[in-house]
Amino acid sequence: MSIEPAFRVSNLRIRFSLVTVSLGFLIFAVGAKPNWFGWDRSPVVGFIQIAVFLIGLALICAGGYVGLSALWGNEQRSIIADIGSRLVGTGYVIAVFTGMADIFGLGTQPLPNVPYFGPWQAGGVFIGELIITAGFLMIIPYRFGWNKTREIEPNNSS
Q1: Distance (Å, rounded) from C-alpha 84 to C-alpha 62?
Q2: CA nearest to 67, candidates 21, 131, 134
Q3: CA distance 85 to 144
Q4: Tens-level pLDDT at each residue, the chain (158 residues)
Q5: Are 82 and 141 within 8 A, CB to CB?
Q6: Cα-trace Rg, the chain
Q7: Where are the alpha helices (DSSP H) in 34-116?
Q8: 3-state secondary structure 75-94
Q9: How far, in Å, are 7, 8, 39, 147 from residue 4 at the CA level?
Q10: Nearest to 99 by CA among 60, 133, 57
Q11: What is the largest CA-CA distance in the chain?
């Protein structure tokens, strides 16, 4: 006789998410700091480098979302978790638009010049990453040791 858990976690989805997040982190690190891998880099951060670390960030977001959603199992997700999933997407959009501000014509350098990834763009990407982190923290299924269906009985000691 086996006792079935209240929730079922998909191990395949967890493995997929871990591989995706790991690959995303590797691509993000290559885009952000290619000199860690011994690759030559120019003194400025260019379009390709920005695009590579944003692709890595996209893989981190997608893999993290899949993995944390799999932890919910068969349970219905809470409103906080739904808000968190939207925050992950919003944070990524903020990171993309601030990282690519010069390409979109919103940055400090006009388009014929080399895109410049300066302190304003770096700050915007960092704010986007903070919002992504807050979203991930909201998606985590916090389970407590008590049974949710148990009624609290009043204390009749008086």
Answers
A1: 13
A2: 21
A3: 22
A4: 555 555 566 788 889 999 999 999 999 999 888 888 877 766 667 778 888 999 999 999 999 999 998 888 778 888 999 999 999 999 999 999 998 887 777 666 666 666 667 788 889 999 999 999 999 999 998 875 555 554 555 566 55
A5: no
A6: 21
A7: 47-70, 79-99, 101-104
A8: CCCCHHHHHHHHHHHHHHHH
A9: 8, 9, 51, 15
A10: 57
A11: 82
Tokens of 18: 């871990």
The token duo for 120 is 């304003």
CA 82 – CA 138 distance, rounded (Å)? 8
- Reported residue count of the chain is 158
> Torsion over CA of 8, 10, 14 and 20, rounded to 10 degrees?
-140
The pair of three-digit structure tokens given for residue 138, joined into one six-digit string: 């909201």
